[in-house]
Description:
Blueprint: E1 6-11, E2 14-19, H1 30-45, E3 51-56, E4 60-62, H2 67-73, H3 83-99, E5 104-108, E6 111-113, H4 115-122, E7 125-128, E8 133-135, H5 149-167, E9 170-172, H6 173-179, E10 184-185, H7 191-203, H8 207-220, H9 227-235, H10 241-251
Parallel strand pairs: 2-3, 3-5, 4-6, 5-7, 6-8, 7-10
Antiparallel strand pairs: 1-2, 8-9
Amino acid sequence: MSDxxxxxxxxxxxxxxxxxxxxxxxxxxxGLIDAISEAFTRALNDxxxxxxxxxxxxxxxxxxxxxxxxxxxxxxxxxxSPVWDDAYRLAxxxxxxxxxxxxxxxxxxxxxxxxxxxxxxxxxxxxAAPEAKFGxxxxxxxxxxxxxxxxxxxxxGERTARWLxxxxxxxxxxxxxxxxxxxxxxxxxxxxxxxxAMAKACAEGGPQALxxxxxxxxxxxxxxxxxxxxAKASAAPRLTQECQAGLRAFFAKKPAPWIQG
Length: 261
């Protein structure tokens, strides 16, 4: 496991997995995705761990996928592009966290957007500081947030999901709590204490009962797309001319070509 990309600590039977790429706004590089996956596997296999808290170092929780890696692949022909593998890697991580038999809690101290907001939706519970922001700006780059759609809709319902996904607007922590994206808004200096208290409450349940409850919750809210289908739905738009033009404009800090006036 790459200690430079994540930190792994256990406190009071709770594993605290911290994204540790603050210099890159904790963007989801291939290496960070693999490190998070390894950390969750470690927590799963540790019988002393009853709950998992997902946190992040720095002022930003997660800015989404690493666009610098995507930028490197823009001009590659489709048969050489890594976008398919990249999408599948992230889709597998989302499913791994969502299917984790131990309760998971997202601790959000700052902005969580795009793939970073997706991480929040696949955790069982989520708390955030007042300054946290949430959003799905993918359409503004010509991308499609296909992987997170079913997870987002479970929390906020279709009407709110449509607004977030179609507008790309960000919402603050209070609005996120109001629509059901997170459970509570907590002062930043109390976030970890509150997360540990929630983890302790969950740990009072029997391990097998908790695992079975999560299994049934997953079955009752079964999504229509498989991991592979969700990954393909997310990756395919990245190869279109529209998306490539949108990304080039974004990297050049210019308006997307479809924006009028």
